[in-house]
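Morning!

This is the sequence you dropped in the shared folder:
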Amino acid sequence: MKTKTVASSIVAAIVSCACLFMFVPTATAAEGVTVTSTKSFPSYTQVRKDLTTEATATSVEDNADWGGIENLDVPQTESQAEKDAAAAKKAAEEEAEKQAEVEAQATQEQANAASRNESRSSVTYSDASGSVSAGAGASIDRAYSLIGQSMDCTALVSQALAARGINFHGWPEEYVNVPGGHVVTDGSLQPGDILIYANTGGWNGGAHYDHVALYVGNGQAVHGGWNGYSVALASAMTEKLTIVVRIP
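The structure's back. Tokens below.
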């Protein structure tokens, strides 16, 4: 038992000595000696670019091919004189187009007029019976010459009357008062008679009479204001005929 105690004491003494040597550096540090511990890191250098400075390069390879000047895409700007010249050119082109349109329209109108003249020349009046008076014949000839032209019914009849020396114009119902004329009541019709219609579907501001025409024989009359406001040879429309005025 005693031997065990001695052995334990010896072990304790050895452990105490070991602890003493272990803590000696700490105690020494406390007495004013500075102990530093350092760790080495690899050096690293970062180059920061100046973003406000434009990068330029002046070195060019000797065999570099930059192409010709025709390959350069350079924005083109116009001087004020060039802009004025372009505006003047555009205005001249627009004026030329307008002039071409006017000329084309005039050409078309001439063609239409030629067509109307052709149409009139193909429609002629002849009195085979010889019963038509000279005055009536002059009115009919004049009415035929106006076929295809643009005019209303009263203008057509007034021009037909002027061909025989009568100056008169009015509303359709007023042609009952043509100088030298009289109303026919027996229902007969003769070339040169003035035909007055009521309720044909037109309107002239008068008392329900809305059309007047010139009878030319064979159940036909020359009408103004017909099919597109032009003069035409058409039916005498006896079923709608209201008044017949005859001039000897």
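Headline: The first strand starts at residue 182 and ends at 183.

More detail when I'm at my desk.
O.
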